[in-house]
Request: fold
Amino acid sequence: MTDKMDHIKKTFARNLRRESTPEEDKIWNALRNRKFLNCKFRRQHVIEGFVVDFYCKRLRLAIEVDGKIHDRQKEYDELRQRLIEEEGIKFIRVTNEEINKDINILFMKIIEA
Reply:
């Protein structure tokens, strides 16, 4: 049963990568290919059965871009974040507005984490 669930989550993550938002694309262009701190980031990565927008294994850091959908799923997001953090992974959030205003806000949050 676990293998089937893993396959479903990976397929879901793959679909999210294909349907990324403009803000996610902007972040991905800034992080991909070790452009930031020479760290490898993954996009729409499955952690503990949840999909996070970006993940860096070396930093043990998950990044979530909060768009309009997150207004409707606050309780789920809080639970997901807590369970991921319980695994020793730092979790930061950035809003679409912050990315559109100045992507350096994200970089500062990563450095602080």
Notes: The radius of gyration is 14 Å. The longest helix spans residues 2-18. Helices lie at 2-18, 22-31, 74-85, 96-101, 104-112. The beta strands are 42-47, 50-56, 61-66, 90-95.
